[in-house]
Amino acid sequence: MRKWLPLLAACLGSFMLLIDVTIVNVALPDIAADLGAGLSGLQWVIDGYALALAALLLMLGALADRFGAKPTYLIGLALFAAASLGCGVAGSPSVLVAARAAQGIGGAAMLATTLSLLHATYTGRDRGIAFSAWGAVSGAAAGVGVVLGGALTDLLSWRWIFFVNLPIAALAIALSAIAFGPSPRRADRRVDLAGMLSFTVAATAVTYGIIRAGEHGWGDRGAAPALITGVVALAAFVVVESSSAAPMLPPCCAGRASPPR
């Protein structure tokens, strides 16, 4: 049974971060009434989390390669727990949105490292079982989030949809610290700062533009500039990665053997 403790630690973290994508949906009316949030503020309670998660996923994955997947995962869990506490005690819509964005950052660190940790921990048939179990838990999280969010909001308060993360995170941190072995680190690998910045800008701008267009229509004055900025930043990312000595995302043909003559 002990050999499955790393899988449990990974599943707890993934379940928590994915359930928070949908758990807030049913609580939005109560949040609006309690904090006096308008429609735009409520939308960003949802979108702030998704934006941070999408924008920082690749960058945090690259940092995990340099500093180790285990410490990155533990930091992500700790940040997610602290941000969940911040969400639960938020007294204004702006504080809640900021705490949700911080949750997204922690979630990105966790999501970027989970599969790496499982791959390093298990081999052979056990690896297949671990990946299957993780996938099943991840798939179930979205559906469970709506049900759990409604139950906690009705029985306790909307704040408990965030407080419930605290014991889960504490257990995941304890299990991860014990169960996962030391992660390999590529300390000699240079940090591709230009690649990180350009990709983060691209992901942030494109995600923001899509969210903005979904709220106000594709003709909105804020959506088009954001999408154009995202496309330009993505082009810059491609140029940077193709010319970098230590790219964050190596070109697909890098290291590929030449075909036999």
Describe the structure.
- By secondary structure, this protein is mainly α.
- Helix content is 77%, strand content 0%.
- Helix 3 runs parallel beside helix 5 and helix 3 runs antiparallel to helix 9.
- The N and C termini lie far apart (52 Å).
- The C terminus is likely disordered.
Estimate percent helicity. over 70%
How many helical elements? 10
Question: How many β-strand stretches?
Answer: 0
Give the terminus-to-terminus CA distance. Answer: 52 Å
Radius of gyration: 20 Å
Strand content: under 5%
- The secondary-structure class comes to mainly alpha
User: Which H/E pattern describes the elements?
Assistant: HHHHHHHHHH
Mean pLDDT rating? 84
Shape assignment: flat
The biggest beta sheet reads: none
- Which residues sit in consecutive blocks of at least 5 with pLDDT less than 50? 253-261
Note the main attributes of this structure:
261 residues, mainly alpha, 77% helix, 0% strand, flat, disordered C terminus
What's the topology here?
Blueprint: H1 5-22, H2 28-35, H3 39-67, H4 69-89, H5 93-121, H6 124-155, H7 160-163, H8 165-179, H9 193-216, H10 223-243
Helix pairs in contact: 1-5, 1-6, 1-8, 3-4, 3-5, 3-9, 4-5, 4-8, 9-10
